[in-house]
Amino acid sequence: KQEVTQIPAALSVPEGENLVLNCSFTDSAIYNLQWFRQDPGKGLTSLLLIQSSQREQTSGRLNASLDKSSGRSTLYIAASQPGDSATYLCAVIGYGGSQGNLIFGKGTKLSVKP
Amino acid sequence: EAQVTQNPRYLITVTGKKLTVTCSQNMNHEYMSWYRQDPGLGLRQIYYSMNVEVTDKGDVPEGYKVSRKEKRNFPLILESPSPNQTSLYFCASLPGGASTEAFFGQGTRLTVV
Which pLDDT value is given to residue A42? Predict the structure, then answer.
């Protein structure tokens, strides 16, 4: 059964730092991996989608990489800002289970201090 | 604007009183699903639908029902809510095909007393 783990569970950094959030999954047979942002009490905002044939995706200050063979993805945030404070979730869609079922990690809660 | 809309956003109800949470998407997506989010457990899939009149159970379906009579709508029904169904609920839609991007609604915070 696919399991997704995110480390660290929480992270506090000063404004301006570059940082890396980690996501690992146990079964490398995935269609894609998607990174989301969730603000307190709010919905999920899609940040980046990496399909299984891709190794990375970039959007602005965000860069996500995927290494299927090792079961890992990283989300790199450059020049962090207080507005980046949120919980970041990664999710995979695997070959097994119900089609389109995203398996989520429990998230990394990021706090960027001015 | 492409979006997934859930209603209501907040709901407090009593045990046993039937309720429906609505979900609608305007992107003509084939695939829709419901998740619940609980502290320490993360997001878990309740039910999903691959198209009109095609639904199936996810990982935590007990106590829930769904229907898909129209492509755009996928309501979640709690016939007899219980306190353990107090949670944050999300509806999601995908165009179809497992390699596509998922879009989520803003969530419904349900409290059952």
Answer: 85
